[in-house]
Amino acid sequence: MATADIKVHTEAHHDDHDHEHEHHGNFWTNYIFCQDHKVIAKQFLITGMAWALIGGILSVIFRLQLGFPDASLEWLRPFLGGWITPEGKIDSEFYLALVTMHGTIMVFFVLTAGLSGTFSNFLIPLQVGARDMASGFMNMLSYWFFFLSSCFMFTSLFISTGPAAGGWTIYPPLSALPQAIQGSGLGMTLWLISMAFFIVSTLLGGINYITTIINMRTAGMSFTRMPLTIWAFFFTAVIGLLSFPVLFGAALLLIFDRSFGTSFFLSDIYIAGEALPHIGGSPILFQHLFWFLGHPEVYIVLLPALGITSEIIATNSRKPIFGYKAMVGSMLFIAILSFVVWAHHMFVTGMNPFLGSIFTLLTLIIAVPSAVKIFNYVTTLWQGNIRFTSAMLFSIGLVSFFLTGGITGLFLGNSAVDIQLHDTYFVVAHFHLVMGSASFFGMMAGIYHWFPKMFGRMLDERLGGIHFWLTFVGVYLVFFPMHYIGIAGFPRRYYSWTNFETFSSFADLNMLVSVAAIITLAAQFIFLFNFFYSIWRGKLASANPWGATTLEWTTPRHPQHGNWPGEIPTVYRWAYDYSKPGAKDDYIPQTIPYSETPESNLPHENDLIKLEMGNSGAIVPDNKKH
Amino acid sequence: MMNLIIGFGVVLIGVIIFMIFRITNLVGLVKGDKEKADYNNGIHAFLFMAFMIISLSVFFWYSYVHFDKYTLPVASEHGKITDHLFWITMGICVVAFAIISIAMFWFTYKYQYKEGRKATYLVDSHKLEILWTLVPAVVMALLIFRGLRTWNEITGPASKEAVVIEIVGQQFAWTARYPGSTDEELGKIDFRLIDASNEFGLDMTDKNSFDDFKSLELHLPVNKEVLLKIRAKDVLHSVFLPHFRVKMDAVPGMLTVFKFVATKTTQQMREETGNPKFNYEMACTEICGKGHFSMRFPVIVDDEETFRKWKASQESWLKQNPDFLRLVPENLREFAMIKSGMEPDNGSAKQGVLQTVSKR
């Protein structure tokens, strides 16, 4: 009973805290340096949205170059200044900077901090039944380190030598030598500083998520009753905690090579008319270290989106998620395997071919749990009673992208086939669909679904529908044609293909892609309008607008710091009792004991009624203390 | 001025859209738009169906009609095998993709919300779970098996008779170095010896260096194994020969290799593709800086006879840079001159060169 005592103690502590805040809070403690997980979540969300907008605009600028190579971009001069050449084109070095920053921003700042930071923070305490995170202060620090990191990265966009330009993977020697590319000067320094702070932020957040999930679940919330969102956030945090320090190490060694003359990654280099003194380093070592984070990072980005989707698809199909245990199992399996597949990014980098064999084997194994997840989503839809809320639309979109993008992994994961496809547009299409678009749709689905809980009002569903269809079709038009371009061998990160006869075709598809990219970006403004308009003017939300079973919908419309005004509710069942035969509603919240639902209980659930009595008997006297 | 008008137009359109949004909202309020469980089901279900049918049709149509446009002709032995594996994978993927997509969009259409209907309470099915764990696992096993066999063949050691060619990447150009016909061995190099004229960093104390020659085109013999030895001088580059399905990074400080057999000469390819101007090309596929996109290297595949003639006709690097004789150890100078083809029979010329060299 030790855990129960601790829980009660922290509750008491938080309650006092809570009252203090309600009475004495000012603007700074309520909105800026706030320790309430819900406010921190919104801070991550708004910052993430700002970054998404910047990342999106950068991509449209380089798509202009690729889709309309002959057009004059003189009109961008007021914004880009000297990066527009006298001929009215984008400077080819700035093009690389755009590609690099687009990747960095989207992967780390939007889909790691914006997605995981927002929803892990918002949902973990609300869905496991806790007053707040294990450490509100560390949680606050997590956001402010992210903010600091954002400041450095944002500043790097405006310096005269340009931001980092060696690709988001920052492979040395290119990223280590300012002689090789301007962006590897101050821009790269700022990139590294920014990422160091970012990693600190991720670790502070991750420790909190894990601790909260393990220690602060409310009475009755056993691991097997947790919603899949929480499982997903849990695995994500564990992966992040184990892999981000490796990137930190790699970044540190790179800083040493850049500034202190060490030779971890540099050897035998003759550049700008001189031979450098570095000897004995290995650029391949950096690639190993980078992808040891880089590949788990894919799942850090993807798992929260999959968790969110599981929740939304079940709720809006009015059906339990199919194969709950298989879903948890496949996430666990993916989480473990994500650490042993990294070198499939390196089949043709000169790595020992024997390693290539091993990593082909391990990589294709990871396709199995991913396939299981897709099948389970589709089966959840089967014989459901599907409501097309905007969140549901985006979730279906996610499953579609996950399938389309994931299946091309079978080509790339197979080393022999990867020889031709590596670093072509086929890869670009693959990861933008499976990781970029799928995760982005998960984030959007989450915003539409939990907006009522965040702001107490509803987003406009019609605008949501328009936003979805424009984005869904737009994303497919952007990334599907890239498969053809990639099979034709077009290398990625090319400013122009006109130098090559082999790559002289496909001006038409490239133009289509660019037009679609512009439309897709434009469609996001519908969402931005909807978002900010609805915060103040949206329809008032009811307590449980989607008829969902999870705990967050038992809080008041505007939950204060501490989440529940009275006691924390006790949980009696799993999160997926939708359309249970015999039940009067088509959902039974987790807080309804089996003893109140004899009409719908399954035989083994009737046996649990006795336990319920014992459970509440132990908790109630403790809680009465305050 | 034009920009101002465009900007103004955009703002105007925004305002109009906003007004429409407000008006429909207000009309909805007046009509008493209660919290009905509508969720525009009919429309979205229909749109999903339409999306599925249209997108799958376009996918199959485009893939069929433009097949020649997006597939590159293959001109190497291992390329045929990897292409075959590619298309097997494609077959499996397209079938799986089509089945799952159709099922998913069909379900969203069929099971759209209806007032009063109750969803099936389906929690689990071990049979189904086992089925769709095993089927992908078996398919993966087959793909892995075929893939690894191919991979091991491609990356296995090259035969002794292979034609060795060195490719060096630098910002932003490629150079090739061939071993001369007299020894068929590449001379030693050292990056510290590189300067404006000794671009390879050739070590002049190594006998094998004397007859090496530089080429700004990659000449390959047809139907003969070629071993590319790949180096980089400054940053990472990557050798990509799209028609031969060859790709390998060039890494500073580390030698990488790729062996393959070209199966069609440039001339044969011209006839086959019906394009008299067809040329093989080599590209860089690892981001290397400002000029990454411009690192084109022409590639020519000749029949064996022409290749041998071409090779014999090339002047050695040392002959083009006679200054470097001074770095050759004195006892090897004469040998170097013979080997590099500096007119060894012409006594006076030889004497002249040697004198200028020793004067320095």
Task: Walk me through what this model shows.
Chain A is mostly helical and 626 residues long. Chain A has 19 helices and 2 strands. A two-stranded antiparallel ribbon of chain A has the order 1-2. In chain A, a hairpin with a 2-residue loop joins β1 and β2. In chain A, α3 packs antiparallel against α5, α7 (186-215) runs antiparallel to α8 (228-259) and α16 (461-487) runs antiparallel to α17 (507-537). Chain A starts with a helix and ends with a helix. Chain B is of the alpha+beta class. In chain B, the strands form 2 sheets. A 5-stranded mixed sheet of chain B has the order 3-2-1-5-8, with no helix packed on it. A 5-stranded mixed sheet of chain B has the order 4-10-9-6-7. In chain B, a hairpin with a 4-residue loop joins β6 (237-241) and β7. The radius of gyration of chain B is 32 Å and the shape is elongated. At the A-B interface, α5, β1, α9, α10 and α11 of A face α1, α2, α4, α5 and β7 of B.
Number of strands of chain B: 10
Percent helix among the residues of chain B? 40-55%
Q: What is the arithmetic mean of pLDDT of chain A?
A: 91
The main β sheet of chain B shows up as: 5 strands, mixed
Mean pLDDT of chain B: 89
The span between the termini of chain A is: 19 Å
